[in-house]
Amino acid sequence: MAEHATLVLIKPDAIARGLAGAVLSRLEQLPLKLIGAKVTRVSQELAEVHYQALRDKPFFNELIQHIRGELHHVEYVLALVYAGPDAVAAVRQVAGATNPEAASPTSLRGSLGRMTTKGVMENILHASSDDQEARREITLWFRPDELLMPLYASKPIAGQMRVWE
Ligand code: DAT
Ligand code: MG
Fold first, then answer.
1. Whose CA is nearest to atom 13 of ligand 1?
2. Contact 154, 163 (CB under 8 A)
3. Rounded to two decimals, what is the model's pTM?
4. Does the pLDDT at position 1 exceed 90?
């Protein structure tokens, strides 16, 4: 597909600290289009598939608990899809390095994120790492009809409903 897109998740640590608006404001300044957005609970299955590449890491279970909101008593994340030129790289730059302590102080993670005393990486947001991951993640979190733009091939199932091919 010609259009580049990326998935952003505003994580439970950001929701708990009232930082969702700050994240959205910053992302709004990028020359990208918001083409999908929802508030959603994160099931165990969704969390595990989303982070499947990290399943062998020692912090995997904590990571799953974090994205599910169990560490912050938050029931949801905000899931967003941004489309436009170099969407993945543009959002990763604004997000900053994974570890908030190492992230540029001008980035979202560097300015708003933190490492807790328990060692939990509260890094505010998820941002897809490359185009292939973006496609995998967007089609995992969103149905075709939930996006304003037909990013990837889909097929009709019943009535107006479509599924990814
Ligand atoms: P990113 O979110 O920058 O793409 P990643 O994909 O390597 O980073 O890891 C996914 C998440 O896992 C990350 O946002 C926070 C957590 N994480 C990564 N490395 C970690 C570590 N060494 N200790 C604890 N949590 C970690
Ligand atoms: Mg990643």
1. 98
2. yes
3. 0.97
4. no
